[in-house]
Design a protein that fits this description.
11 helices, about 0% strand, mainly alpha, about 270 residues, elongated
Length: about 270
């Protein structure tokens, strides 16, 4: 008797409708957000250290360097300082995004997620949502410390809320850059070192702590037109009063540009085989 191979019959699996796929994707992202929040609740020192560093910057610049830096804004140097500290803290919070993704990639956690029946976008979205919540907490703590050392909004509460939202959106945009860096380098130590290389110069060579006009002429062109300065000047105008239109559209262009460029790069790095 001759054995005959059973012919293979292709099976067509219907994709669920896009509203259902969207619901599943959101559910998966929220599940991973909750996972990250649980990790922080079990290791609370991570959140403590995330908050302690910006508080130290506030106290250091307020009481050590503040007397030596002349500024012409209502309220003096502390009012000039706080928008810069808030923006810097939101940007530095992105370190956690890069390091966490690199660690999970290095330990094979991302590979396990890839093998599960879940939305591919959920890993990145869950991490970004969790880090956004952490940024909001950090900004609120910094605001409380700022008020304790003399900072006051000079332009009303609505612009103050818009300033805080701008800081969180700025931090989220920087998180997309950090997500790409973490997924591309895939090494926790390399990511930590690289973050210092690109983020520290951008924040310190800006209007965060000193007026740009106090810098050498050859450096002013870079400091004036780089995204950190543009966003901080918009936040400062919201907090203290001043022209909003110019820096508003420039800030929007930079923030949208960062997201549009680095989200696809992060997704591509996520899909790349280990």
């Amino acid at each position: 008797m001759t054995d005959r191979a059973t012919p293979l019959v292709p099976v067509t699996v219907d994709q669920p409708a896009w509203p259902l796929r969207l619901r599943f994707g959101v559910s998966d992202a929220l599940a991973l957000t909750w996972r990250d929040l649980l990790v922080w609740s079990r290791v609370p020192m991570f959140l403590v250290f995330s908050i302690v560093q910006p508080v130290m910057f506030v106290l250091l610049f307020r009481y050590v360097f503040g007397g030596a830096i002349p500024v012409r804004v209502p309220g003096g140097y502390v009012d000039y300082l706080m928008p810069g500290i808030i923006a810097q803290s939101a940007a530095f919070a992105s370190f956690g995004t890069a390091i966490s993704l690199a660690r999970e990639m290095q330990r094979g956690v991302i590979d396990r997620f890839r093998s599960m029946p879940m939305a591919r976008s959920a890993v990145l979205l869950g991490r970004l949502v969790a880090d956004t919540l952490r940024m909001i907490l950090t900004v609120l703590v910094i605001m409380i410390v700022g008020y304790a050392v003399g900072f006051r909004f000079q332009n009303g509460w609505v612009p103050a809320l818009v300033m805080m939202v701008t800081a969180v959106v700025f931090g989220l945009a920087v998180c997309t850059v950090s997500a790409f860096v973490g997924l591309a380098l895939r090494d926790e130590e390399s990511v930590g070192s690289f973050g210092l290389i690109w983020l520290f110069p951008l924040t310190f060579v800006s209007a965060a702590f000193v007026p740009v006009t106090s810098m050498p002429g050859w450096l002013q062109a870079f400091a004036t037109n780089q995204p950190v300065t543009i966003v901080i000047e918009e936040m400062r105008s919201l907090a203290l009063g001043g022209p909003l239109a110019l820096h508003a559209w420039q800030s929007a262009v930079w923030l949208v540009g960062l997201v549009v460029v680095f989200v696809p790069l992060a997704v591509r790095a996520y899909r790349r085989p280990s």
